[in-house]
């Protein structure tokens, strides 16, 4: 993940928690390593199950200045699924747009089966727009991540403007100006969808924001809530499981301190290459627990990694299943193997090492500029305690990119503090869906704000679970959550048609 570049290596050894977490306190919505492997996978994947056509739109580099470079063009990728689109005689069937997040757009399209499931009912056109600087939408090609000179154009405000411009152009080209647009997004994409509705109400009539932690900024939610939530997921499965994981970190450090300890860890953790830093092992283990909590789906799925249904329960079953006397590291290693090796295809694990030669990737930049989500780890969690030190974070960002983070920019630009009070009288037509098994839910909107800014919360849901395709194994509460979403969407669209027909009468 991100910061294993040579120049930063000495810093990693000082880190009290994840090597990566100091630079971007959230364990990243999606780790770059996962994105890379998924990108590779999706290139060879059989796309016929989600049929879409691929397009490129000449997008302007900078929407907010008129400097000479601003009008430079790059090609922004978008996908369309028009199978069910019926413009009708009045050209008014809706357009559902997925506001892409930090990864290649095919990956999000493939994991947002919900939109494909509902397209026939709404006779909707589906459009998935790739976020600038990800996938193939890189404004400076291979050099896009080179420095702040190029990365400076990677901001959420530029991304939202991209979406608005592309949507307007597309509607014009399709003679679909009268079609209502609803934006959809999950995770960071959900944050973008919600913000898009607030910033561009004339372009989108509503937003469905799934697992969107728009309140994970400043001190709106307790900084320890994310890791506490991960820990609760494990603790409610089994206190023994929680306790074994919690106590394993000291065991890990103790082994590392012994003579020949690193060789022992290399062996225990079946590392492909000799492990150099105990912190890499800690990261590797922590990442398995954090990501499994995020995708603790009630059905078998392959979002981050292929996993069985209820993977947290499965991990705890592995830990609890060992006879007494077995050491904790063996237990936690086996549990983590569920995450890394459920497919059984790995002969060893890449605990260290990163294929990103610059140690740079888009989300790290975003976390070092706008997306400052402070996180701490409390002693009540199953992880090692960690205090967020803003000064250190700032220095790391300055060192890595030569930029200073703007920790209060997001809440200044989009709001967030006292969101209920603000959005009660301003804004409408946003669904915030969350599943409480997902640690990101703690930074989400979990309460209804007004009659049209609605929170749909499931206790057993996980990271944008509602966006996955319906399956025959779906529990009732999941089907009900999706049905509630469909009903609300239908209401917005009906209202829009009603409003427009009244307007055309006058
Ligand atoms: C993709 O899947 C479809 C339907 O399952 C199949 O007919 C087709 O041969 C597959 N194509 C490739 C390249 O695997
Ligand atoms: C709309 O058409 C114009 C002219 O052909 C083209 O340049 C533009 O890329 C199209 N817009 C979209 C969103 O594809
Ligand atoms: C991954 O799982 C397979 C099948 O269970 C097993 O043979 C293999 O040893 C595992 N890999 C590692 C590195 O543990
Ligand atoms: C955890 O931290 C709290 C607050 O700092 C402290 O009161 C408590 O004693 C600590 N508990 C343990 C088990 O260290
Ligand atoms: C918000 O209101 C809807 C009904 O409009 C209800 O179904 C839902 O449970 C409410 N959400 C919360 C978190 O209370």
UniProtKB/TrEMBL annotation:
Cross-referenced SUPFAM superfamilies: alpha/beta-Hydrolases
InterPro entries associated with the record: AB_hydrolase_fold, Peptidase_S28, Ser_carbopepase_S28_SKS
Pfam families, per the entry: Peptidase_S28
Key words of the record: Glycoprotein, Hydrolase, Protease, Signal
Molecular function per GO: dipeptidyl-peptidase activity; serine-type exopeptidase activity
One GO BP: proteolysis
Position of the signal peptide: 1-19
Name of protein: Lysosomal Pro-X carboxypeptidase
Organism name: Canna indica
Origin organism lineage: Eukaryota, Viridiplantae, Streptophyta, Embryophyta, Tracheophyta
